[in-house]
Amino acid sequence: MCEEVKETVQRHTQSMRHSKEELNRLNQAIQKLTVDVDPDKSQPCELEGAKDAPALQEEGASDSAKGKLAWLEAALQKAKQDMVRQLREYQELMIVKLGLDFEIATYRKLLESEESR
C-alpha cells in the first residue's frame, strides 16, 4: 500500500515537473512573441489584431497548462495527506504491536518460571 502511494506521488511529481516545464516554455514563447511583435508599441494597429489570434491560442494553452498544474499540485497535496495519515496509522499499529510483544514476553517468562518449578 505504501509503495503504491510512493509510486503515485512520484508519478504526480514527474507530471507536475513536466507541466511546469511546459508552462515555462509557453511563457518564454509568449514573451518572445511579445518582444518580436511589440518591442516598443511602434507597430501599426493592423499587427495588433494579427497577433491576437496566436496570443489567444498561447494564452489558452497557458491556461490549460496552469489548470493541469493546479490539478497536479492538488493531487500531490492529497497524496501527501494520505501518506501522513498512513504514517500515523502505522505508528499506532507499532505502539499496539510493541505492547503486545511486551505482554507476550511477560507471559513467556511467567510460563518458563512455572515450568522450572
From TrEMBL:
<feature type="region of interest" description="Disordered">
    <location>
        <begin position="1"/>
        <end position="21"/>
    </location>
</feature>
<keyword id="KW-0403">Intermediate filament</keyword>
<dbReference type="GO" id="GO:0045109">
    <property type="term" value="P:intermediate filament organization"/>
</dbReference>
<feature type="coiled-coil region">
    <location>
        <begin position="69"/>
        <end position="96"/>
    </location>
</feature>
<dbReference type="Pfam" id="PF00038">
    <property type="entry name" value="Filament"/>
</dbReference>
<feature type="compositionally biased region" description="Basic and acidic residues">
    <location>
        <begin position="38"/>
        <end position="51"/>
    </location>
</feature>
<keyword id="KW-0416">Keratin</keyword>
<dbReference type="GO" id="GO:0030280">
    <property type="term" value="F:structural constituent of skin epidermis"/>
</dbReference>
<feature type="compositionally biased region" description="Basic and acidic residues">
    <location>
        <begin position="1"/>
        <end position="10"/>
    </location>
</feature>
<dbReference type="InterPro" id="IPR039008">
    <property type="entry name" value="IF_rod_dom"/>
</dbReference>
<dbReference type="GO" id="GO:0031424">
    <property type="term" value="P:keratinization"/>
</dbReference>
<dbReference type="GO" id="GO:0045095">
    <property type="term" value="C:keratin filament"/>
</dbReference>
<dbReference type="GO" id="GO:0005615">
    <property type="term" value="C:extracellular space"/>
</dbReference>
<feature type="region of interest" description="Disordered">
    <location>
        <begin position="38"/>
        <end position="63"/>
    </location>
</feature>
<protein>
    <recommendedName>
        <fullName>IF rod domain-containing protein</fullName>
    </recommendedName>
</protein>
<comment type="similarity">
    <text>Belongs to the intermediate filament family.</text>
</comment>
<feature type="domain" description="IF rod">
    <location>
        <begin position="1"/>
        <end position="117"/>
    </location>
</feature>
<dbReference type="InterPro" id="IPR018039">
    <property type="entry name" value="IF_conserved"/>
</dbReference>
<keyword id="KW-0175">Coiled coil</keyword>
